[in-house]
Write a structure and sequence with these properties.
By secondary structure, the protein is an alpha+beta fold. It is built from 9 helices and 14 strands. Strands 8-7-10-5-6-9 form a 6-stranded antiparallel sheet. The protein is globular, with a radius of gyration of 22 Å. The N and C termini lie far apart (62 Å).
């Protein structure tokens, strides 16, 4: 057998990728780019693992041993529908290692992963589709409940699933799956039934504000009860709840980032005894906050809710990070308690402001 020192190349699995931009947005070396596929320039990638930590589907946690003269270039990756096989001309050298990705909290239930894909999706029926936020039709947030044909879809709070929109894209290819966080507890939207809830905001503009029509969001927002959907997943092995119900939960979210928090709150509310829950929730106005009546009805004895409104008439503009200093003493105590877990979900850049606020809190305590 020919002896060759192989190279470990970092790739993104096009069959699993959600095309959500989570990897490209955090890559510190600019190695990731996309057209239809998200791809990695081997020469620019330093294997730091930042994109792996930020990938909701696990697609970025893909690696292949390749010959040095057979590195997969960007042009080749853009044309893939699945990953290529590994080189088999030599025993690979030991891995040099990369940043350790996030791990689940101690005692968290082992998640089911990648049970269904685009070639073999799960089938679900839409039970209900209700608006839960948004004053205008082009800016609404809807709550969808799905029932799966072959029993419960095994998801845990904090996991995501993929929705396959019907039809073809501009290139004549089937649409890729879009990722949505599960917004219900592991035993279902209604206890024991296994139905899964999603939170979907209708997308009518791109990040620059130009008009566009989001493929999956508009498909889901317009879907009538009784329709059949194709679902992939589950995905996500780290954004999970601790097994101990006494664990303290600190949750910080904006917009539809409330979806996984709702699932966690729902789960905790069904347990006989549970630790304290503190939720910092941000949006433009009260009308823009999904599930607000339900959250407020829980009361401070079960959920301590803090709201940040950036465009509420008659009120000063506030963002979620602006709420944290007022809770500094409590947060400092929670963050030094080994039973506390902190969760963030929402708009890109949220973690930057939150990290800065925690730095100030830590310095003062």
């Amino acid at each position: 057998m020919e002896t060759v020192d192989l190279v470990r190349q970092h790739l993104i699995d096009p069959a699993v990728c959600f095309r959500c931009d989570a990897c490209e947005s955090v890559c510190p070396t600019g190695a990731i780019s996309h057209e239809d596929n998200y791809v990695i320039d081997h020469e620019r990638c330093d294997g730091c693992g930042t994109c792996v930590d930020n990938c909701p589907s696990g697609a970025a946690d893909s690696w292949r041993w390749v010959r040095p003269d057979a590195i997969h270039d960007v042009a080749a990756q853009l044309a893939w529908t699945e990953l290529p096989p590994e080189a088999m001309t030599a025993v690979p050298p030991p891995a040099t290692g990369r940043a350790q990705g996030p791990i689940a909290p101690p005692g968290a239930a082992a998640p089911a992963l990648h049970l269904f894909d685009a070639a073999r999706p799960a089938l679900a029926t839409l039970l209900s589709n209700q608006r839960v936020a948004g004053a205008a039709a082009d800016d609404e947030v809807r709550h969808l409940v799905l029932r799966f044909e072959h029993g419960a879809f095994p998801v845990l709070e904090g996991q995501t699933l993929g929705i396959l929109p019907p039809g073809l894209d501009a290139h004549g290819h089937p649409h890729f799956a879009r990722a949505y966080s599960v917004a219900s507890a592991r035993d279902g939207e209604n206890p024991g039934q296994g139905d899964v809830a999603l939170t979907v905001r209708r997308v009518t503009r791109d990040r620059a504000g130009a008009p566009m029509r989001g493929v999956a969001s508009n498909y889901l927002c317009d879907l009538a009860p009784g329709a059949t959907l194709q679902v992939t997943g589950p995905f996500g092995a780290s954004f999970l709840m601790p097994g101990d119900p006494a664990t303290r939960l600190v949750m910080i979210c904006t917009g539809t980032g409330v979806a996984p928090m709702r699932g966690m709150i729902q789960r905790r509310s069904r347990l006989a005894a549970s630790g304290p829950m503190l939720l910092f929730y941000g949006g433009r106005s009260r009308a823009d906050l999904a599930y607000l009546p339900m959250l407020e009805a829980m009361g401070p004895g079960r959920l301590d809710l803090r709201l940040a409104l950036s465009r509420e008439p008659g009120q000063s503009r506030r963002h979620v990070q602006d709420l944290l200093p007022a809770e500094g003493a409590r947060l400092a105590a929670l963050l030094t308690d080994g039973r506390t877990c902190l969760y963030l979900c929402g708009l890109r850049g949220l973690e930057t402001g939150v990290a800065e606020a925690f730095t100030r809190i830590g310095g003062g305590h």
